[in-house]
Amino acid sequence: MTSVCKKVQTKLEGWYQNLRSNIQGLYLNKKITSKRYRRSLYNVEITDSPPPPSFSSLKFQVVVNQNHEPEEEEELTAVLTSPLSLDSDSGNDYGTPNLLQRIFSLLKNVRPGSDLTRFSLPAIFNIPKSQLQCYGESVYCVNNDILSQCANGATPLERFTSVVAWSISTVRPLMFGVAPYNPILGETHHVSRGNLNVLLEQVSHHPPVSALHATNEKDNIEVIMCQYAIPKLHGTCIETRVLGKRQLKLLDKGESYVMNSPNLVIKFLPVPDVEWLGNVTIKCQETGLEAHLCYKGNSFLGRKGNYRAVRGKIISSLNMKTVSEINGHWDRTVAVKDISNGKTTVIYKAKDVISALKTPVVKDTKGLMACESAVIWAKVNEAILNKKWDKANDSKIAIEEKEREMARNRKLKGETWVPKHFVLTGSKETGDSDWEVKPRNLKLPPAPIDVPL
Predict the structure, then answer these.
(1) Domain range annotation of the chain
(2) Of 37 and 389, which is predicted with more confidence?
(3) pLDDT tier at 270, thresholds 50, 70, 90
(4) Within 10 Å of residue 320's Cβ, how many Cβ atoms?
(5) Which DSSP string corresponds to 213-249?
(6) Cis peptide, bond prior to residue 270, ω within 30 of zero
(7) How far apart are CA 397 and CA 122, in angstroms?
(8) With contact defined as beta carbons under 8 Å apart, do 190 and 199 qualify?
(9) Where is this region: Disordered (predicted)?
(10) Is 127 helix (H, G, I), strand (E, B) or coil?
(11) Contact criterion met (CB below 8 Å) for 134 and 386
């Protein structure tokens, strides 16, 4: 019996080692998806007693060591790149392979009329940042604080005109042939610039819905935005309808401005380019002022008279009279002409607002969350910046596969994803423009990522 017990004890010791390895493996995997963890050492104790009368008398137990030292807090890595601006056409941060090679590779993988919301681009087509970051940059990456001008205008018309300028400033030039990553579900992006704190969250993956909340307590400003993009391939171009309500609230004035976004069009012929096109409406119910803008681009024959042009007017909905005319180019200057006296005033200079933008920096590494965009995509960003395309693809696929696995697990358990920072309302059945978001918190704290002033 003694020899038998020794054999059993040997097997149990082997089982014990496997158990420790499995627990440590689970622990290491768990660290990937959380901010920080403290380790508990698991030990298997086997009694070294006289030979028992039967196998059932062998005793072992798994115990938790309560006297362990806490593990040091995990340092999360964030890789941030320069924001999209008037200077970003050259792509100074990174390089991409031959343009024609990327175009042919894209066209052979999609068909006319394809739904591109579920299409995943290889890393060769990506810029080193998430779409969630690009969305946030349009609000927090500026050189002039136009938002504060909106709050400090002396008259309703002055404030409304500043809101029009701010809306135009959220339009940024994009590079042809490359795109940001599709955000994963639950991905967040938290950045501060001066008194402005901005928080974004990917609140839905299919369909892809992004939410933004920004607060400026000094000027008592709140911005709430919901973005839902629908890209479709139409022969020689990809047109992306950018849906969702955008609200800017001047709380001290009791004014709320509601607006939409122009559509994004990627043209392959006759000249490859990316343009913002379509109509934008800005309304303030409290003052009765409305703006109707039209973003224009090149004609098919390549005439550049309307390239990046924006034209429109400000009207009073109380008497339907035109107050001002708007004319200019969103990548240069935009001016308004007062109908009553003919005076023209420049309200927006792109070079002063979205040129030579500063790259955000990590101010508080301990405040970073594992769901932060710059953390989730850090390895992909780094690989793209170093032109290591295979490594970038592998890292990107790993992130996307992990998200699919989590989605499958939720489906098996009958669980429904609930956003952490926003309440999402809407339905696939009620129409693609019905999605709205409401922040769970009225105020936002300073972020661990900061934009230098």
Answers:
(1) 2-64, 97-373+420-450
(2) 389
(3) confident
(4) 8
(5) EEEETTTTEEEEEEEEEEEEEETTEEEEEEE--EEEE
(6) yes
(7) 9
(8) yes
(9) 427-453
(10) strand
(11) no
Rounded Cα gap, residues 192 and 364, in angstroms: 12
CATH architecture of 97-373+420-450: Beta Barrel (2.40)
Q: What is the mean pLDDT of residues 29-42?
A: 34
> How far apart, in whole angstroms, are the C-alpha atoms of residue 450 and residue 364?
9
Three-state secondary structure of 266-285: EECCCCCEEEEEEEEEEEEC
**Hey, which bits of 132-243 come out as E strands?**
179-181, 188-193, 196-204, 209-216, 221-234, 237-243
> Which residues lie below 8 Å from residue 144, measured CB to CB, with a gap of 6+?
352, 353
b/e for 175-195, b at 16 or more Cβ within 10 A? ebbbbbbbbbbbbbbbbbbee
Helix or strand (DSSP H, E) at 109: none
* Helices vs. strands in the chain: H and E counts, helices first: 9, 22
- Angstrom distance (rounded) from CA 131 to CA 137: 10
Q: 196-235 as b/e, with b when 16 or more CB fall inside 10 Å?
A: bbbbbbbbbbeebbbbbbbbbeebebbbbbbbbbbbebee
Alpha-carbon span 106 to 268, nearest angstrom: 11
* pLDDT number for residue 43: 34
pLDDT band at 209 (very low <50, low <70, confident <90, very high): very high
The answer to whether residues 445 and 212 touch, using CB atoms and an 8 Å cutoff, is no
Count Cβ neighbours within 10 Å for each residue of 55-73 and write b for 16 or more, e otherwise. eeeeeeeeeeeeeeeeeee
376, amino acid identity? I
Is the CB of residue 18 less than 8 Å from the CB of residue 42? no
Interior/surface letters 130-157, b for 16+ CB within 10 angstroms, e for the rest: bbbbbbbbbbbbbbebbbbbbbebeeeb
Predicted local distance difference test score (pLDDT) of residue 268: 86
Contact 212, 227 (CB under 8 A): yes
